[in-house]
Amino acid sequence: xxxxxxxxxxxxxxxxxxxxxxxxxxxxxxxxxxxxxxxxxxxxxxxxxxxxxxxxxxxxxxxxxxxxxxxxxxxxxxxxxxxxxxxxxxxxxxxxxxxxxxxxxxxxxxxxxxxxxxxxxxxxxxxxxxxxxxxxxxxxxxxxxxxxxxxxxxxxxxxxxxxxxxxxxxxxxxxxxxxxxxxxxxxxxxxxxxxxxxxxxxxxxxxxxxxxxxxxxxxxxxxxxxxxxxxxxxxxxxxxxxxxxxxxxxxxxxxxxxxxxxxxxxxxxxxxxxxxxxxxxxxxxxxxxxxxxxxxxxxxxxxxxxxxxxxxxxxxxxxxxxxxxxxxxxxxxxxxxxxxxxxxxxxxxxxxxxxxxxxxxxxxxxxxxxxxxxxxxxxxxxxxxxxxxxxxxxxxxxxxxxx
Length: 403
Prior knowledge:
Shape: elongated
Helix content: 25-40%
Strand content: 25-35%
Number of strands: 21
CATH topology of the largest domain: Metallo-beta-lactamase, Chain A
């Protein structure tokens, strides 16, 4: 890869990560992910914004691009760390060895993390909210945006060029051949749509209230480009990704899309038997229905659909007096991610004894679910059970449609 020119003296230096590993050790990346860092050259000084980690050749790829920019020979003046997560700082020890005089700028809360993660204390300086540095014709301004998505997070703004370097905010999964949103092919645009929403649901959703605060804080800032640390740089429609994130953040408390996500699991087919009746009942009211079987479907994709949907249907059997373990894992993840206040129903079979419902009731209370009903039965479903499941799903869909 070559450095991407964003403006006079401003460049993206990026690496493409493949699909071998899990992002954050948990989320699959079947289409890979981008690691983006940035160089800002003024007439007097040069700053690098964020780093990468030694992951799938990322360090070497970025080093080659820095060589092309004549910025890899110890002559960088500033390293600006917007966020301390290791995918943006993992190469820091090697970087500081190569640039021993670089001044590291970060938020106040990041100082201790630099020490704990990398044992670096020299030339580390915290900056304040609204503080600026002058590179010579290039002014960088810092905005504290905590908990998007770690407490020490900040964003950096290139004043003259109106570019917002937002780190994890406004990012996405996926690899892209093109740097900018207005260059993407149709295939890349399609990929970006799904991978942005999955990235948000997986990485950012539980911090949605802070996303809304951050967007409000930056509302009066003129922005020509949004440059995140994952995904593409938004140059053609920077306002689109900001509005998109604002919409995704509102899904926590609502309103959400008038869709229903059916999450189901079955041991021997007795719970599975009701799935088509639930889907048919929901679709009879004209709502879009997402149907996801677990554990066959990774939790990453389940969370993506559940986050956007106003309705949530949980189908699972009782397993040894408790919830089916893969479903317990899913509900635990949904609760952690603040999937809450959804219209909900539950169905499922049990053998010699029930018990799943008792655990589900706890999740229902903590997630503030509006449960319209339960269809639970011993052994195999009767025709009456199937009719009840259809009617209950239809009624839930009707309530969502008319809300």
